[in-house]
Design a protein that fits this description.
Layout lengths: L2 H6 L8 H11 L4 E5 L5 E5 L8 E7 L4 E7 L5 E6 L11 E4 L4 E6 L18 E3 L5 H5 L7 E4 L4 E2 L4 E4 L2 H15 L6 E7 L7 H10 L3 E9 L27 E2 L10 H13 L5 E2 L9 H4 L8 E8 L7 E4 H17 L13
Parallel strand pairs: 3-12, 3-13, 13-16, 14-15
Antiparallel strand pairs: 1-2, 2-12, 4-5, 4-9, 6-7, 6-9, 7-8, 10-11, 11-17, 14-16
Helix pairs in contact: 4-8, 6-8
């Protein structure tokens, strides 16, 4: 499992270089036809053992949410904007790494002693302090356009639970690396480690067009809101939807805001899990989206399914996941690749 190294690497959208380097080194012994497209996504092929089976694109995105330097104040404080979906409420006080040299910094806000009536956090009011005392001093180390990442350390909290940043979607990348290291599989596996998912599914669009697979699987890290809500009204009978739960196995998407999984393909994945004794759950919120939103409509379209790893606190410096979920997700993906045939795809997929 390459998850620790992938989590600690910095790869904010549009600058996934460090993540790509780790992936290329890990997959090189196991695949052929490795290519890096003009956007920076990595594709590779692992040949199958049974001719006539579908060609399966398996995708995971390399980028993470973060920030970008937009300017520097005269006092040396750094102005910034978000890259990807971020909750501004969690930002004040967070440690970050700025630029290629990973300068340590801290996101600051007006102290509570001078700000008692302002309760809403807005990113435009925040700054990053790297210890510079002037604009010129800061410009010696930082420039507009530099990426900024959460400063977070990967740790094992117990035998089964680990924490780290960027599990959306470094956990998918780690799973895909493990898939390629295993096998062989009945189908041709067309791997795609994509870029810029967090800002518009851009890398996946190009990869799907280049690979032109028969069917696609997207490996993702998704929200697990499976803890009691401390802000909930105890007299409210309406429970909070957990979306997914840690320890309950991989999560299957039925529908999200960008796509609907074909029922026949979804039923096959469910039946495969049940036949192999693999626990699974359904993602119960219809919001959000994945690379599947662009893959399923690219180059004429293809049936696409999403298999996700439940993660608490995604898009934050510290996400949590369960290693048993990881093992069961890997088992499910491998079983699907060995059992998939054209019979489980829509008849319109070029065959009658």
């Amino acid at each position: 499992m390459l998850l620790k190294e992938l989590s600690q690497a910095i790869g904010v959208s549009g600058k996934e270089d460090a993540v790509r380097k780790l992936i290329l080194e890990a997959i090189e012994p196991h695949v052929t036809d490795i290519q890096i497209d003009p956007l920076g996504s990595v594709t590779a092929v692992k040949a199958g053992t049974e001719p006539g089976r579908p060609r399966v694109m398996v995708a995971a995105h390399m980028d993470e949410v973060g920030f970008m330097v937009t300017g520097i104040d005269n006092d040396g404080l750094i102005r910034f904007t978000g890259v990807g979906g971020l909750d501004e409420r969690i930002l004040p006080g967070l440690r970050v790494k700025v630029g290629d040299n990973q300068l340590p910094g801290c996101i600051i806000w007006t102290p509570i002693h001078h700000n008692r009536e302002q309760n809403v956090v807005k990113m435009k009011q925040l700054r990053i302090d790297i210890g510079a005392t002037s604009k010129d001093a800061a410009l010696n180390h930082v420039k507009p356009g530099d990426r900024i990442a959460f400063d977070s350390e990967y740790r094992e909290l117990s035998d089964t639970v680990v924490r780290g940043k960027a599990f959306d979607d470094r956990v998918g990348c780690s799973l895909l690396v493990d898939v390629l290291a295993g096998g062989p599989y009945a189908v041709d596996v067309l791997a795609a480690f994509t870029v810029q998912e967090e800002i518009g599914l851009r890398g996946a669009t190009v990869s799907a067009q280049r690979l032109n697979a028969d069917v696609a699987l997207v490996l993702e890290g998704t929200t697990a809101h499976d803890l009691p809500n401390p802000l909930a009204n105890p007299d409210d009978d309406e429970p909070v939807n957990p979306t997914t739960r840690l320890g309950h196995g991989p999560a299957l998407t039925i529908m999200d805001r960008s796509m609907i999984v074909p029922p026949r393909l979804l039923a096959f994945i469910r039946e495969t899990a049940e036949a192999n004794g693999i626990p699974y759950q359904f993602k119960t919120q219809l919001g959000g989206g994945t690379d599947g939103g662009s893959i399923h409509v690219a180059a004429g379209g293809r049936p696409t399914a999403v298999i996700s790893m439940p993660c608490r606190y995604i898009h934050s410096p510290i996400a949590l996941l369960n290693k048993d979920d990881y093992a069961n997700t890997l088992r499910l993906v491998q079983a699907v690749l060995n059992g998939l045939t054209f019979d489980v795809l829509p008849a319109s997929n070029g065959r009658v």
